[in-house]
Amino acid sequence: MSASPCATPIKLSLWDKVAAPHDDSVEGLEIGIGTCTLELSGIYWNLIYSRTDDATALQTSLVTRSKQFVGCQTGFIAFSGNFKGLSQGIIN
């Protein structure tokens, strides 16, 4: 994964597109309740739901979902397409 050159270093998300800043690429830290970020490199922590298309990260949430993922993914339910790393969840 290569984050876009205009990736934000920090993103705070209430739910999906309700975020500050409203950016689809994060290179650093994302914290929220539930969100979808297309590209992420760093730490991705959401309370309820986190979804990404392409991530190299530590991803933690009740429900985690990723298409391309490298790193550590933890949640009650953890879904991944192409995955490299550690995935922990009651349902994988």
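^ that was protein a. below is b, sequence first then the tokens
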Amino acid sequence: MKIKKEAGLFSKQVSAAKRQQSDLLKKLNDLENEVKEEFDLVKGMITYAAQILTVKFKKIPANKVDRTSSMLSGPLFTSAEYPIPSTEKQMLFPVLQLDLREISILAKKDIGDGLLQLWCDTLELDCIVRVIPRNKVIQKSMDPFAFKVPKLCYNGGAFDGFPLPHWFNLDPVGNSIDVVDSCVPGPFESQLEDYDGDYGRYLNYLIDKNLRKDLEKFGKITEEKTFEHLTFFGTYQVIQYNSSDTNAFCLLSIADWGSSGSAQIFYKLNPNGETEYTFFSSVS
């Protein structure tokens, strides 16, 4: 079939329509993304709300600590296969260790069964999370904890503990190791109240009166009230990121990170049955 050429009859109209079509689709796509971002923010703050547990400790000398137990800044489990992490310049600082079997019991769901460890590169202000599988946690394979305190801190200065909290024990082989003793149940908390009813330019318009009332009620009853050194689950103070940014549940939160910031380990249960752990921190 042949198409007859009508010189210039519709060519300008077709070109103009195609340009407008492309422009409109871009604007609608941008609008869709903005609305989705606002929607995800509110949905995330509700999805990842949870009951918080405050962690209590007992102090034990390093030479008497069970190195497979849950603790802060102590002689964590290490072996030939899982040595103390280090960079070219120095060893990473042992921030904490958790027995994930105990955490799973507290969470009332399986989020792992090995030893979760957090190590801090004080020079780069970054941390790594590693999990030692349960079948690798063998007492007879454990190495001596030959830890050397870092010499350098951020910007190359002498190590003074930064970004670790001021209440942290800076001697992981000393006589005052904080071993997890118990947990005290707290309230069910979310970050929704932090936004004071402002859910975004578009969502504010789309939300009807009844839904807004329900959101504000939920925000009030779940307002953050717990400000402790270390907590499990629940939520945390919004400083540089929020629940929707991490897209995962809070496993633990450390207060006073980097002076007046905070740090968290988050967990996500993947479809393949594995648990993914990530570390976030705000330094202020």
